[in-house]
């Protein structure tokens, strides 16, 4: 076995904490909200597992997750005697990441940072790291480690500004799922596409790291095989922004998925309702659910949300499209955002009415959040409507971080809390599940009629 000359510890700053105390207390009684939060919190960092696969052979790689920072968790990392520590963090935990990185650097350990937030604000991150990765890390990571070995580490490695790190189809390696303690997870992540061509103004992922691209089907097959080596009956959540943009490629993907015994979940857009063959393949592949960004229950709020007002042009089809998708036995999790400039107090009652009329099997409610690097952030910053210069710990999707157009901050928070309480009430959640179960029953009956 090749001697490992160096050691890197990859640290995922997992978990997000809601600051709104009333919503936090209310959340204890909201089963749908709590269940989805638990799922998100239990996902490993696919970005770190991916760069781990691109590490030179003379590097030993360890993967750690820090939900709560304790002295014991810090000692656990220090006891590994790493040469380098690499952090990946969501915006909501970036301040904690900076503080911890500063502490490790004071101990003489080299620190590297990457991820969505750091890619959007590399200059902010640089004082807290010896090196920053901006954009896609796979092609950057091997050179970064080689530079470290030769004491020539650069302050920034960017795939967004340096064509040397341009994405290549032949650059793929299988993420290091073997680094995980599988017993800790209720699902694993797999990425089949990156980026999204819709480029919604509020989306922190659609273009911050990468433009839209698809993985080769053969590579996805290799990654699935690696997952099955560590977990025989996995639940897989795709780390995609919008999986089924290319319908022909998507059908190849679904045929591949159908050959594996697994259940899975992904995010997509409403256009899948327009393709019966795709829906048939989706159902046959054991897809448990698709999350679709419906965004709003009123058409005017969709004006200017995405490129060429695509979602606005789909709005009138929403109810029929949801019905059609779910008629194939595929659960739809409809995602709604509250706090657009066109929203009023009536928007909240309209949203509740729409959810009931749509018979969505599940619902995700969030507050409009201006993540750094997005068009929404730039707009609100220019309008001096951000509540603070840096409000990163409030980027939870459930905390208000800007001055709304038609509410006070307190009014938006209280209206959101009331809607959450109604939509996620136990009786209401149970009714949605019963309705979808009846849809499945009707599908089975009609199939055998």
Compile the SSE list and pairings.
Blueprint: E1 6-13, H1 21-27, H2 31-41, H3 46-53, E2 59-65, H4 71-78, E3 84-89, H5 94-106, E4 110-114, H6 116-120, H7 122-125, E5 131-134, H8 140-149, E6 156-158, E7 188-190, E8 193-194, E9 213-214, H9 217-230, E10 235-238, H10 247-258, E11 263-268, H11 276-284, E12 287-295, H12 310-314, H13 318-327, E13 331-338, H14 345-358, E14 362-367, H15 375-382, H16 409-423, H17 426-448
Parallel strand pairs: 1-2, 1-3, 3-4, 4-5, 5-6, 7-10, 10-11, 11-12, 12-13, 13-14
Antiparallel strand pairs: 8-9
Helix pairs in contact: 10-11, 14-16
Task: Provide tags for this entry.
alpha/beta; single chain; pyruvate-formate lyase- activating enzyme; 14 strands; 4 iron, 4 sulfur cluster binding; 6-stranded parallel β-sheet; 2 domains; 17 helices; 449 residues
């Amino acid at each position: 076995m090749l001697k490992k000359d160096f050691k890197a510890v990859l640290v995922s700053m997992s978990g997000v904490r809601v600051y709104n105390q009333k919503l936090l207390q209310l959340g204890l009684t909201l089963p749908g909200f709590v269940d989805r939060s638990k799922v998100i919190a239990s996902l490993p960092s696919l970005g770190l597992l991916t760069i781990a696969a691109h590490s030179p052979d003379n590097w030993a790689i360890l993967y750690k997750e820090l939900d709560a920072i304790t002295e014991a968790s810090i000692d656990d990392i220090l006891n590994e005697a790493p040469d380098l520590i690499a952090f990946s963090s969501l915006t909501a935990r970036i301040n904690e990441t900076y503080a911890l990185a500063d502490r490790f650097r004071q101990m003489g350990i080299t620190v590297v940072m990457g991820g969505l937030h750091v890619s959007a604000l590399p200059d902010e991150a640089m004082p807290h790291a010896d090196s920053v990765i901006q954009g896609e890390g796979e092609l950057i990571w091997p050179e970064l480690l080689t530079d470290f070995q030769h004491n020539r580490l650069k302050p920034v490695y960017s795939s967004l500004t340096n064509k040397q790190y341009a994405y290549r189809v032949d650059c793929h390696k299988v993420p290091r799922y073997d680094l995980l303690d599988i017993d800790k997870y209720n699902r694993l992540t797999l990425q089949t596409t990156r980026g999204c061509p819709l480029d919604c103004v509020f989306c922190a992922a659609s273009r911050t790291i990468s433009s839209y691209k698809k993985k080769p089907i053969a590579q996805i097959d290799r990654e699935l095989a690696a997952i099955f080596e560590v977990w025989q009956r996995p639940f897989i959540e795709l780390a995609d922004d919008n999986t089924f943009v290319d319908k022909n490629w998507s059908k190849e993907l679904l045929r591949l998925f159908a050959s594996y015994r697994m259940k899975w979940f992904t995010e997509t857009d409403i256009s899948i309702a327009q393709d019966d063959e795709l829906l048939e393949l989706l159902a046959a592949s054991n897809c448990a659910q698709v999350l679709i960004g419906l965004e709003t229950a009123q058409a005017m709020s969709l004006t200017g949300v995405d490129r060429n007002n695509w979602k606005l042009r789909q709005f009138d089809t929403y109810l029929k499209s949801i019905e059609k998708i779910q008629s194939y036995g595929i659960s739809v999790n409809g995602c709604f955002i509250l706090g657009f400039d066109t929203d009023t107090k009536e928007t909240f009652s309209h949203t509740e009415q729409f959810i009931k009329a749509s018979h969505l099997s599940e619902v995700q409610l969030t507050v409009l959040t201006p993540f750094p690097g997005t068009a929404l952030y730039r707009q609100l910053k220019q309008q001096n409507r951000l509540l603070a210069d840096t409000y990163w710990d409030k980027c939870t999707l459930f905390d208000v971080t800007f001055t709304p157009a038609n509410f006070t901050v307190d009014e938006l928070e209280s209206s959101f809390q009331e809607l959450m309480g109604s939509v996620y009430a136990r009786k209401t959640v149970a009714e949605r599940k019963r309705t979808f179960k009846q849809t499945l029953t009707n599908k089975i009956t009609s199939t055998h009629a």
